[in-house]
Amino acid sequence: MAEEKKLIFSGIQPTGTFTLGNYIGAIRNWAPLQDQYRCVYCVVDMHAITVRQDPVKLRQHTLEAYALLLACGIDLDKSILFIQSHVRTHAELNWLLCCNTQFGELSRMTQFKDKSARHADDVNAGLFTYPSLMAADILAYNADLVPVGADQKQHLELARNVAQRFNQRYGELFTLPEPYIPDVGARVMSLQDPTKKMSKSDENPNACILILDDKDTIIRKFKRAVTDSDAEVCYREGKDGINNLMSIYSSVTGKSYEEITAEFAGRGYGDFKVAVGEAVADHLQPIRDNFARLISDKAYLKECYTANAEKALRYSQRIVAKAFHKVGFVDKG
Ligand code: AMP
Ligand code: TRP
Questions:
Q1: Ligand 2 atom nearest to 131, measured from its CA
Q2: What is the model's pTM?
């Protein structure tokens, strides 16, 4: 008998326009997975409010994120794509998992430490229990694989531990999810400080490429990228800036590091930077075009997210109802 396809779950926060880091590290891997797996993808607006958001902007960013994911090739005939707050099972399972997650475990999360330092005036309980909600997202679908960038690995390990603990306490229910992290591009670094990851919260706008930046802007930012005083385009320890550009170039062109070194042998960094900028801009052009079309059709977007929230609810409800039963809640009639 044919084995059932494995299930993929991933989520992304609608906290502004996506960066090239989000794209290469996470989103671009989502569309190709649709042929091999059953995929469930989610815009995690509930995660976003763990740091203060302007409500008007959050709504706008959520719709933009939804449209951008469609623009990046998520196909609703193959996958489910929905908005987290539309599907109540996430909040419901979150509570059960919070009651099975330890204070000590949550305190060790690097992202919590970073974010609570950055938002010292608002270290709220949601920020602290964020990984339990993320575990609920994943476990409500019994996902096998979770494609994320390297920075999310620790959260995924926590999700596995919580799943395992729940299964031990209450009997087998949850699948233990595996991370699915790309070999190349799992960490796209800042163009201005290549020892730090590229992030939209960077104060220097030249540090970060946005997916929706136009071609000239992209090339200009790459031209200004910080490199080293060497002149050879090759991947080597200590050449963080060049390593980062090579990794970006490799992930949009498919060329290996050896091929890239050969292509730019005897040419300076200037040529290389322009080539990276052009390759990235050309790669992103169809996404920008699709996005412009989709974001102007709000009725179509609404149709998509409404139907998909229903599908997600139907799927996750079965698993969450079992979890409720296992912890001893009285079954609803
Ligand atoms: P965030 O923007 O931090 O909410 O991240 C959304 C997704 O993009 C997560 O899967 C991250 O792992 C991934 N991601 C964010 N920044 C980078 C980066 N600079 N390089 C690679 N992946 C990233
Ligand atoms: N925490 C993830 C991030 O910041 C977003 C996220 C929320 C997620 N729930 C998820 C990713 C479930 C994968 C699976 O990027």
A1: 1
A2: 0.91
